[in-house]
Design goal:
The chain has 250 residues and is α+β, with helices and mostly antiparallel strands. The protein has 10 helices and 12 strands. It has helices at residues 10-17, 21-29, 39-47, 63-73, 124-127, 150-156, 162-170, 190-198, 200-208, 231-245, and strands at residues 7-9, 60-62, 85-86, 93-94, 98-99, 107-108, 111-112, 146-148, 179-180, 186-189, 215-216, 222-223. The strands form 5 sheets. The chain has a 4-stranded antiparallel β-sheet. The chain is elongated. Residues 114-128 have low confidence and may be disordered.
């Protein structure tokens, strides 16, 4: 039986994940387009695990780092069995939520600490998400947070279908993702999705409400200043009228 501190070569990593050695090599050396270190190094850093053997001529990684990486991106379940993959157009998506590699104590108010920003997270100010209230939703067997992708996020966020969720994201109407995973796919935490669903009625009311009034009368009745009632609008109209009456010089 393999121990958590066993060191795995790229061939062994590929075999554990059920992929070719070329994929494992990319996880080892290919930097992400969105920034940050290669996937395996990114996970090791997030876990606080030293990986001096990764710099050897024949790179090796601690088994616990490899397992955490495979669980984070959807290749492995919490019990270390092979995970089902959801095929589709573009980048494949995990068939069910994945497990974030970071310990739960790295999160503050539901958001990662600043020094962990290389793990692909966005802070609350950037994402527009509110601080999480109450306990965080975690995977019971590992005690780590779960990541939700498009395929799982839409229903929790209160959308009618994955297509409507995707359309809302494309048009900039949905909250930014909580992070970009090691394979550069956006994900959300459950708390973010539930907070969005809770605010659905308020957003709907705001969308159908008329514009804010310009003021209120002493009786409390709202009023709006039309262009014809506005002093500056009248002045501009008068100037335009006088200019139109002036005859061009000979």
């Amino acid at each position: 039986m393999a121990r958590k501190d066993d060191l795995l070569t790229l061939y062994e990593i590929a075999d554990l994940a059920g992929v070719g050695k070329q994929a494992a090599a990319k996880w080892h050396h290919m930097a992400r387009k969105t920034g940050g270190e290669p996937p395996l190094r990114l996970v090791a850093k997030a876990m606080g695990v030293e990986i001096p053997e990764a710099n050897d001529h024949s790179p090796r990684y601690p088994r616990r780092v490899v397992v955490a990486f495979l669980q984070a991106v959807g290749y492995m379940n919490a019990d270390e069995s092979r995970a089902e993959r959801r095929e589709g157009r573009g980048k494949w998506a995990p068939a069910k939520p994945t497990i974030d590699p970071r310990p739960i104590d790295q999160f503050h108010d539901g958001r990662p600490e600043a020094e962990d920003s290389d793990a692909g997270e966005r802070d609350a100010e950037t994402s527009g998400a509110e601080p999480v209230r109450g306990p965080l939703h975690v995977d019971r067997s590992t005690g780590r947070r779960l990541r939700y992708y498009n395929a799982h996020a839409w229903e929790i966020a209160g959308f009618g279908s994955e297509n409507s969720f995707t359309t809302s994201r494309t048009r900039g109407r949905f909250v930014d993702p909580d992070g970009i995973d090691e394979l550069e796919r956006p994900y959300w935490f459950r708390e973010t999705l539930e907070q969005w669903a809770e605010g659905a009625e308020d957003r709907k009311a705001a969308r159908f409400a008329g514009p804010e009034p310009d003021g209120f009368t002493v009786e409390g009745q709202p009023f709006r200043i039309l262009p014809g009632d506005n002093y500056y609008a009248k002045r501009a109209a008068g100037q335009a009228g006088r200019a139109g009456k002036e005859k061009p010089s000979e």
